[in-house]
Amino acid sequence: MSLSEAVRSAPAAWPGRALPADFLWGASSSAYQIEGASAEDGKGPSVQDVKTVPAGTPDFSVCSDHYHRWAEDIALLAELGLKSYRFSIAWTRILPEGTGAVNPAGVEFYSRLIDECLWHGIEPIVTMYHFDLPTALDARGGWADPATVDAFVEFARVLFAAYGDRVTHWLTINEQNIMTLVPHHGLGAAAGPDYPLYQANHHMLLAQARAMALCHEVLPAAKIGPAPNIALALPLEGTAEDVLCAQYLNAVRNWLYLDAAVLGRYNTLAVDHIRRAGYRLDVSDDDLRVLREGRPDFIAFNYYNTETVTYAPGETLEDADGAIHGPGRIVPNPHFATTDWNWPIDPLGFRTTLQEIHSRYGLPLMVTENGLGAYDRLEPDGTVDDGYRIDYLRDHITAMKQAIDTGVPVIGYHPWSAIDLISTHDGFLKRYGFVYVRRDNESTHDLARFRKKSFHWYRRVIASGGADLA
Ligand code: BGP
User: Is 317 within a domain?
Assistant: First the structure.
């Protein structure tokens, strides 16, 4: 389409217009947070299964019991009207030791899940790795060990062979940037004080690049992309120092990951920070070739909130001359309301983030997480009045539509989460789902499912192609 055609065909006024019929209205989950059955049918342990969970929260052995209730859950998602369902495959269900022998029961579980989605007309979107590194690999150093790169590529090869006939959209690594910025999220016990954080991160980038290249080689019709958590960093004040700190935070938090995945190169500002902060980072010419050869077809990303940063003497990385070389302190932004967990709520930041990613990389974008963690209450009549979640999602969908209106090619939107599941830090107190799961931190109760108010609302949104957000 020429620019003048694009200008002429610019969409009519929002918010009443529907998105194209092939837009992937979806929802999202991850294996270690939803499945349970963490030691069943030959599954090996992952770092999530053996970690010390936060006080008062349950371990991951039962979760939402999706491993046993997957058919009921997919039927609910079909009733919701989902066009796509983004879930992850537990590495250790497929390869209990992380590498080596394949577990047929694990392969069969996801095969059935994928078939069930397709039978209901839901496109399965598969995350290959969502925080659940096999403990067998963690024991050998995890991502600090270059052999983990080979293990991931081997895992990818098994997945492509088993499901490549039915899965079109693949996501490599969920929130690699958060794993590096907040290592206890998913890097495992190996990530102790001597862990070479950015060298390990580099190995993940290589693993991702090789998996993307392999996908294109063995599944030419498939599409694959990274799935970091991307959110613009905002300067607290309009001072040059705050703007510079925000530029560093954007480089270190966001662009490092997408520049490597999409452009096959390291972001110079991020490298400046990494080196001055004293991290080890050895990158060979051969590594750079690997990065260049593995290209994504689209960018998936998770968005919850922007981050606001300010220059803080003594905390911001500075050289002897006082020149700034890193982000400062992340602070609350007085302009934003917050969630029950003090996460800023910034729907317009979703729009600016979408627009910024598009203007940097020009690839189609898929939103793989966005949502509101809240204390939901199940009423005696089985209803859950989560109007606050509807408000959050409505504002973010509106912002996304505005970004699309400016020309950003967004191909799908997957709120976190499809059904209630265990939050990374807060167990079952903090819920995100369209479907309430009756259990809490103390007891698994009967794990019965209930449709929340947001379930009925999102069903109308999807049925109207996003036109009806009321
Ligand atoms: C993302 C993760 C998800 C999920 C979500 C909500 O970072 O990819 O796995 O946990 O955040 O986070 P939390 O459960 O901490 O509220």
Answer: yes
Mind listing the pLDDT tens digit for each residue in 249-289? 999 999 999 999 999 999 999 999 999 999 999 999 999 99
Residue to probe by mutation, ligand 1, list 423, 428, 432, 441, most atoms within 8 Å of CB: 423
Reported residue count of the chain is 470
Tell whether 251 is covered by a domain. yes
Q: Which of 116, 123, 175, 307 is catalytic?
A: 175
Contact 456, 438 (CB under 8 A): no
pLDDT surpassing 60 at residue 101: yes
Which domain, by its residues, includes 228? 14-463
Is 72 among the residues known to form the active site? no
Report the alpha-carbon distance of residue 182 to residue 134 in Å, rounded: 19
- Domain count across the chain: 1
Q: Give the CATH number, domain containing residue 414.
A: 3.20.20.80
Q: Is the pLDDT of residue 403 over 70?
A: yes
> Residue 15's pLDDT is what?
57
Q: Are 245 and 234 in contact (CB under 8 A)?
A: no
Compute the distance between CA of residue 277 and CA of residue 67 in angstroms, rounded to an integer.
43
Nearest to 153 by CA among 88, 197, 218: 218
Asked, for residue 4, whether it belongs to a domain, the answer is no
Grouping H, G, I as helix, E, B as strand and the rest as coil, residue 142 is: helix
Q: What are phi and psi for residue 307, nearest 5 degrees?
A: -120, 140
Cα separation, 360 vs 42, in Å, equals 44
Q: What is the pLDDT of residue 425?
A: 83
Task: Report CA(424)–ligand 1 centroid distance (Å).
Answer: 6
DSSP letter, residue 370: -
pLDDT value, residue 12: 46
Q: Which atom of ligand 1 is nearest to the CA of 33?
A: 9
Residue 33 located in a structural domain:
yes
How far is 360 from 104, CA to CA, in rounded Å?
42
Q: Are 218 and 164 in contact (CB under 8 A)?
A: yes
Give 130's DSSP letter: S
- pTM score, two decimals? 0.96
Cα separations (Å) of 346 from 239, 337, 368, 386, 403?
Answer: 21, 8, 17, 19, 14
